């Protein structure tokens, strides 16, 4: 038996910027996906999951012609297909999946599953780390059909204990960003996932592309400055303009957050969180009532420096910067208020930056 592990992530700031070649600042978290493998003497993949009752068996010979099944197994199978494209020789094996990242929560359960699957299927074959992240992203784009950026897979691969990462999504490289000692990262799960998520994500990607057509010569929204945006604004329809404005300002906020973290300026870090949330709510329109409620409630509590939605949106989690020592009271109060309003018990997770994917 061999075992592999890949973590989920929480993004601190830089939302919906990755597929526009921009900047993001995530951490890997202590929740993840573990896969145990056993070799088989038949050429097939047998997939099972502790979280789902149904299993799936696919012959290696059928992988190349496979169609997605809208099933959890699409993630590992999409990865297997990309490995075939790279020329990796796959072996017949049993993969037993056990994940602690809640699905649909915006904490990258998909990326954790993809990256752990890639390590399991590689079975010791070397693959450069950035290439591993890219391969898993291709699996999600090509087979699962989500036109995602690189953030989630990259964070799962490159997570580092004790430090966040400032990821340049064009260069696909990062700089480590230690967080100030006085602050805790606290995730609050709204426990809702609105159906719109996937189609709204595709719409956002398309609207950003549309906005980009108003900036001839620019390769991505990341290359547009605020001045250029202001000069072109009158000629851009309202929706793509708002999406572009979010991107230009969000990239700027990521850099500001990086600088504020270096100076341990918690108040500034928190302020940038709030600005990011408002921009995602108003200009990018990917928040929802429950997330707005959680953010607004958090900002009234002692020791809270900042709060924002995190991940793709339309449900999932908020991420909060809470002063050390105030976490417990924060969690208690947030649960009470959310339960009173929505009759749902939100999971509250105090997390620190964790190490990335590995063989166990
Ligand atoms: C999802 C995608 C990421 C990123 C975020 C939004 O998590 O998988 O690539 O676009 O949404 O920041």
Question: Care to give the gist of this entry?
Answer:
The chain has 360 residues and is of the alpha+beta class. It contains ten helices and twelve strands.
Question: Key features?
Answer:
binds alpha-D-galactopyranose, alpha+beta, 360 residues, globular, Ribosomal Protein S5, domain 2, 2 domains
Chain oligomer state: single chain
Task: Give the class from helix and strand content and strand pairing.
Answer: alpha+beta
**Which blocks of ≥5 consecutive residues have pLDDT under 50?**
none
Tell me which ligands are bound. Answer: alpha-D-galactopyranose
Whole-number mean pLDDT: 97
**Number of DSSP E strands:** 12
Termini gap: 11 Å
CATH class designation of the largest domain: Alpha Beta
Q: Which fold does the CATH topology of the largest domain refer to?
A: Ribosomal Protein S5, domain 2
Helix count, DSSP H or I runs of 4 or more residues: 10
Domain module tally: 2
**What is the overall silhouette?**
globular
Radius of gyration over C-alpha positions, nearest whole angstrom: 20 Å
Helix content: 25-40%
- Which percent range describes the beta-strand content? 25-35%
């Amino acid at each position: 038996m061999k075992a592999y592990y890949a973590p989920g992530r929480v993004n601190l700031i830089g939302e919906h910027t990755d597929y526009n070649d921009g900047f993001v600042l995530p951490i890997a978290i202590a929740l993840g996906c573990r896969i145990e493998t056993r070799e088989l003497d038949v050429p097939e993949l047998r997939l099972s999951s502790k979280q789902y009752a149904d299993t799936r068996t696919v012959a290696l010979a059928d992988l190349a012609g496979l169609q997605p099944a809208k099933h959890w197994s699409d993630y590992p199978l999409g990865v297997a297909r990309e490995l075939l494209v790279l020329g990796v020789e796959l072996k017949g094996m049993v993969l037993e999946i056990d994940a602690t990242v809640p699905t649909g929560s915006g904490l990258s359960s998909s990326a954790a599953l993809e990256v752990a699957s890639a390590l399991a299927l590689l079975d010791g074959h070397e693959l450069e780390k950035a290439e591993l992240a890219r391969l898993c992203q291709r699996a999600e784009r090509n087979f699962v059909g989500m036109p995602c950026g690189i953030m989630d897979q990259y964070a799962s691969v490159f997570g580092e204990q004790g430090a966040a990462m400032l990821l340049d999504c064009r260069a696909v490289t990062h700089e480590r960003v230690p967080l100030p000692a006085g602050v805790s990262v606290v995730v609050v799960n709204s426990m809702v996932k609105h159906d719109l998520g996937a189609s709204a994500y595709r719409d956002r990607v398309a609207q950003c592309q549309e906005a980009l057509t108003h900036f001839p010569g620019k390769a991505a929204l990341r290359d547009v400055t605020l001045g250029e945006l202001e000069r072109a604004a009158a000629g851009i329809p309202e929706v793509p303009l708002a999406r572009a404005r979010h991107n230009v300002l969000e990239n700027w906020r990521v850099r500001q957050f990086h600088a504020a973290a270096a100076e341990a300026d918690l108040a500034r870090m928190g302020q940038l969180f709030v600005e990011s949330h408002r921009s995602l709510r108003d200009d990018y329109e990917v928040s929802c009532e429950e997330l707005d409620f959680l953010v607004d409630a958090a900002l009234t509590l002692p020791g809270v420096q900042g709060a924002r939605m995190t991940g793709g949106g339309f449900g999932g989690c908020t991420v909060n910067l809470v002063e050390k020592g105030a976490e417990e009271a924060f969690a208690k109060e947030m649960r009470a208020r959310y339960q009173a309003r929505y009759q749902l018990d939100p999971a509250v997770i105090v997390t620190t930056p964790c190490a990335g994917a590995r063989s166990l």
